[in-house]
């Protein structure tokens, strides 16, 4: 740094994103947040920023959250997972009316225990012309996601194969990523064609299209996660994409984005520097005022630290032993859910559970007898998926699983509704990113959850990431930067508008 260039001047220069900043013979170019990420992501999805908000289930990623994100230039997904098709269709109606042509997407979650529901949601999206889905929790390709992706596929006048329906696949395993970065398998295509789920034309054109146009690498996130570090996973996924692109030679190579642990400017900047086409946030958005969660949960999230997370049984994949990451602080859901899974593994029916254990969980968890809980669970599944009831009445262990799943499923809804006497049972999906955001926001106006909005949080993260990227350019040219120069503090909406709009 030259003697005349003070730390204050350099700090202010870095924050003026529209102008180059110089330090002696070194310089960093102008860099607005809309230049971060892949410009093709911006063009194809029609957004201002290479930044997405993920589809948190049970409507936590609410209509209001999607509306706020879309109007701020973000790509936002509605949290359709766990909701009945009628509720999802109501969200489609509202967002069609409120957003018009602004971009948005909806979640299509893999439901191995409720195949009929997965297919019904796919049918709904095809019928209503939903053109973008976030595919999550898939362990492989299913007829539903293949049917969605290939609907309307055609070859244009320029010879390119195009598909009107776009898929953003969220993955954390190479073997699953491989399936989404490749064409659908011939075996599956043949089976679907034989069942009249696909036409011969769709099968013929499918080989020229990856199953997902965008692949989100999901690291240590809330909800379904393998708890893997982004810095290890992401380069491997980029290399995988490049190998598969060289093999298949798609006209439009798939893009790779980053998620899990991203809730601060530093994390977003690091992801972009690794080559992320876009970043996707989750946990931090649940603490925003537009989320479909409750004020009680927002307060709990705003008090969380990075270590206040724990793995717990997943309601939708209970019998497979799959786990989700949830908030540990202020709730006993994880411990209680784990206990139910242990009881289920050890016993083949409700009647086989020892009386003392049965009495305890009825009192502490269900607040009803297991027989009463089965009666209400049976009514629920008769409306949602009658095949589950039919199976349960033949298989006592499956019946026990449905009863225990009822606790896990309702625990999220109790949290979203803020049910006062169920606080210890709240299931709040949360990853370490929440604690990182709270540490960054401490002492600022964003410390209070009532001040957190999706747009202000996103634009602060993007603005800070641009500043830090410019600082990195200077460091690479040998400029030593004082810590004060790169300290990013949250800015209110009016100041962000002055700097970015």
Write the SSE topology:
Blueprint: H1 7-15, E1 21-23, E2 26-28, H2 39-45, E3 51-53, H3 63-71, E4 75-78, H4 85-99, E5 105-109, H5 115-128, E6 132-136, H6 143-150, E7 154-155, E8 161-162, E9 166-171, H7 174-180, H8 186-194, H9 200-205, E10 214-218, E11 223-224, H10 230-248, E12 255-259, H11 265-273, E13 279-281, H12 283-286, H13 295-302, E14 309-313, E15 323-327, H14 333-346, H15 355-366, H16 370-384, H17 386-392, H18 396-417, H19 432-441, H20 454-476, H21 493-500
Parallel strand pairs: 3-4, 3-13, 4-5, 5-6, 6-9, 9-10, 10-12, 12-13
Antiparallel strand pairs: 1-2, 7-8, 11-15, 14-15
Helix pairs in contact: 3-4, 4-5, 5-6, 11-20, 14-18, 16-17, 16-18, 17-18
Please describe what this structure looks like.
There is one protein chain. By secondary structure, the protein is α/β, with parallel strands linked by helices. The protein has 2 domains: 266 residues, Aldolase class I (TIM Barrel, Alpha-Beta Barrel), CATH 3.20.20.70; 96 residues, no CATH class. The protein is 47% helix and 12% strand. It is built from 21 helices and 15 strands. The protein is globular.
CATH class of the largest domain: Alpha Beta
* Low-confidence residue ranges: none
What would the CATH topology of the largest domain be?
TIM Barrel
Largest sheet: 8 strands, parallel, barrel
Instruction: Round the Cα radius of gyration to an integer and report it.
Output: 24 Å
In CATH, the homologous superfamily of the largest domain goes by the name: Aldolase class I
Summed up, the domain count is: 2
What is the 3D shape?
globular
How many extended strands? 15
Q: Strand sequence of the main sheet, in spatial order?
A: 3-4-5-6-9-10-12-13
> What's the architecture of the largest domain in CATH terms?
Alpha-Beta Barrel
